[in-house]
Specification:
- 28% of the residues lie in helices and 22% in strands.
- The protein has 333 residues and is of the alpha/beta class.
- The strands form 2 sheets. Strands 6-7-8-3-9-10-12-11 form an 8-stranded mixed beta sheet, with helices on both faces. The protein has a 4-stranded antiparallel beta sheet with strand order 2-1-4-5, covered by helices on one side.
- A hairpin with a 2-residue loop joins strand 9 and strand 10.
- Helix 3 runs parallel beside helix 5.
- The relative contact order is 0.14.
Length: 333
């Protein structure tokens, strides 16, 4: 079995809301009991609608936020409750590539300083050795070494994201959390950045937690995909299985809503009705049941656990079919 590099167990993050004069205190249930593991050299994609908790998950596993409950393990070491000083030696092991390459870089620092700063902070190199290391990183991500003297505003969007990748790569991390790393880029450069990330993974054995709402991106980069809805994982499987045989109604709806090159091609799945429920007051039972075309009365009462219905294929649905049966049971009107 491959070495597990990142693992989370029953991870929870609830944000308290300001309490009024009347009524009980309320919380935003951004992440509500996530469990998964990612092996060395693997990419786990996390997909879902806006507001499902994907970016909160990214901040939790990189310890930019402290969880309400649950555990985070890096290479088998529990880092959940570590204070800032105790966490410092582990921070270089997990790095974050941000969504917005425009606001995630310090505009007052040169590009070389941006990439070289973490190298110096972690005591990996100084002086000329650091400059040489930064120059090699620039070349590796497709930037010219003479661009080290430029400032972020002098780069294009794709070049800035390459700069962010170089910064994350600078401290030789084990895990890179990529939070929508290509959503702010032009379509023409997305494939270039994605292919760069894949090449870097092959070269350095990196582990990726890759967050995106774009299923085409997920198909290109992920080995396994976790589908999130209202702070929970509703389905997790390898990408081939997920795209060919989704078992959760929400996954089926996501795939059915994805753009297809041929407009005459028949879409599978039904168009979802209604809006995503508020994470402050999620529905009882299965959170998805108000929008599910396959819901039965029991779905309003039973909170389905995430269970393995086939090797490596986990689903949270009381109407899940057997692994040899149809994709979904017949809808009940």
């Amino acid at each position: 079995m491959s070495e597990v590099t990142l693992e989370v167990r029953q991870l929870v993050k609830h944000f308290p809301l300001r309490r009024g004069f009347l009524g009980p205190p309320k919380h935003v249930r951004a992440v509500d009991g996530l469990s998964f593991s990612v092996a060395r050299g693997e990419t786990l994609g996390v997909v879902g609608e806006s507001g499902c908790g994907k970016s909160t998950l990214a901040k939790l596993v990189t310890k930019l936020l402290d969880p309400t409950a649950g555990r985070i393990l890096l290479g088998g070491t529990d880092v959940t409750g570590l204070a800032a000083a105790a966490m410092w030696p582990h921070r270089r092991r997990i790095q974050l590539v941000f969504q917005d390459p425009y606001s995630s870089l310090n505009p007052r620092l040169s590009a070389g300083s941006i990439v070289g700063e973490p190298i110096e902070n972690f005591g990996l190199a100084r002086g000329r050795e650091k400059e040489e290391r930064v120059a090699r990183l620039f070349e590796r991500v497709g930037l010219r070494p003479d661009a080290m003297r430029k400032y972020p505003h002098e780069f294009s969007g794709g070049q800035r994201q390459r700069l962010g990748i170089a910064k994350a790569l600078a401290v030789n991390p084990d895990v890179i959390v990529a939070d929508e790393p290509v959503s702010a880029l032009d379509v023409s450069v997305r494939a270039q950045v994605l292919n760069l990330l894949i090449d870097l993974q092959d070269e350095y054995g990196l582990t990726y937690l890759f967050i995106s709402h774009d299923l085409a991106v997920m198909r290109h980069v992920s080995h396994r995909i976790a589908v999130m809805y209202l702070g929970r994982i509703v389905e997790l499987a390898d990408k081939r299985t997920l795209f060919s045989r989704p078992l959760h109604p929400y996954t089926e709806a996501l795939l059915g809503a994805a753009p297809v090159p041929n407009p005459a091609r028949k879409r599978r799945g039904r168009v979802l009705q209604g809006e995503v429920a508020s994470p402050t007051n999620p529905p009882s039972g299965c959170h998805f049941h108000p929008r599910c075309p396959y819901a039965v009365p029991a779905c309003r009462m039973v909170d389905p656990p995430l269970v393995e219905v086939a090797p490596g294929h986990l689903v949270a649905c009381i109407r899940r079919p057997p692994s040899t049966g149809p994709v979904l049971a017949a809808p009940i009107d």
